[in-house]
Amino acid sequence: MSWELVSFLGVGLVLFAGFAWYERSRPPAQVVALVAALAALAIAGRIAFAPFPNMKPTTDIVIFSGYALGGAPGFAVGALTALVSNFFFGQGPWTPWQMVGWGLCGVLGAALALRTRHASRYALAATCGFAGILYGALLNFSTMATFGGDLSWRYFLALEVRAIPFEIAHVVANVALALIAGPAMVRMLTRFRQRFEWERGTPAPAAPRRHRPLGGALRGGGAAALLLVVAFLALAATPAHAASVSHAADWLESVQNGDGGFGPSASDESGTATTCWVMLGLEAAGRNPLDVTSTKGRTPVDFLRREVGSIGSPGDLARTILALEGAGLDPRDFADRNLVAELLASRRDNGSYHGWPNSTAFSVIALRAAGVDGVQKSLDWLRKVQNEDGGWGDTPGSPSTTDGTGAVMQALSPDSKAAGHGLFYLRHQAQRKGGGFPLGANGTVNTMSTAWAIQGILAVGGDPGSFRRGSVSAPEYLAHNQRADGSYRYANPDQTASEVANQTPVWVTGQVLVAAAGKFYPVAAPPRAPEPKQKATSSSGSGGASPDLTAPPSGSAPSASDLKRFFQDSPAGSAGQAPAGGAGGGGGKGGDLGVPGADGLPEIPATGSAVPEGDLGSVPDASSAQASGEPAAEATADDSGSSSAGAVVLGLLAGCVLFGAGLAGRRGWMRWRYGL
Question: Which of 140, 156, 160, 226 has the maximum number of C-beta atoms within 10 A of its C-beta?
Answer without folding.
Answer: 140
